[in-house]
Amino acid sequence: MSESRHPDGKDAVMSPSLAVVLSILAAPTATLPTDLKPVAPDALMHPLAPLQPVRKERAAILIHGMKLFPLRPHKALRPDLHDWQEPATDLPKTLGATFDVYAFCYAQLVPVDAVCHTPALRAAVASCKAAGYKEIVLIGHSCGGIIAREFVEAYPDAGVTKVIQVATPNMGSDLAVVKTGYPKIQSAFVESVIPALRQDVASRGKRLIPPKVEFATVVCKLRGFDGDGLVWMDAQWPDDLQRQGVPATIVQINHFEACKGPAGVKAITELAREKLTRWSPEEVEKARRVIFREEKPTPPGP
User: pTM higher than 0.90 for the full model?
Assistant: First the structure.
């Protein structure tokens, strides 16, 4: 397993409150405020309801990541669209040509690992399935990618057919160790992305991504840098995904523009539309040389 690093080369340190966060992870939330909003092909679509006729054969659910509210902590209490989920932005509009697109929003009051267990997310996927969509794709940016991944691991038969992670801190982000810049109400969410915690979750995890669920990760980076400004590349496409043959595509873009910039929108849309298959160990090794520019022995199977 790759170790998470600080920009100065030091290993990430465990937060003093990590034990508290770990204890919370065992209790999925049932009361987190959430919302599901239709955003494309137009924002006037009726909200999902069981057996509602579909416009397209495929549905995409966009799941946002972290957004800090240091000066307006009350905003963390309610589910709101992030800017890249807005109907007028490029990703929903581009996906809307072939998908009915919905945005899943949630309050950031609990560890990221608890969000996938919200009844609202399960109900959204169930409604898509009941409505007759032949494909249901979860697209998660940043922490939203963790939520999408853990949802299919926990509920493999819910109906999701594909997951696309974008700039996702599967092995955490060093910035989560910093104790300033966010209100106390968001601390459980932020601290759940501390690298030491994410590595512990990965080492304790017994689930695998279901073979029937197509899966890919978009690795984002800045030119001349080993990450996108917030998340290292080896945290976005870590060893455990490589061992499962999860394909990765690299995009030269920063973390905040990953779902808004032309290169990111193009990569995400192409992955959403095409058939995804797991890579062989040889294909993983070839991609490693391109993405990380290094040689590494092929890891053992999961």
Answer: no
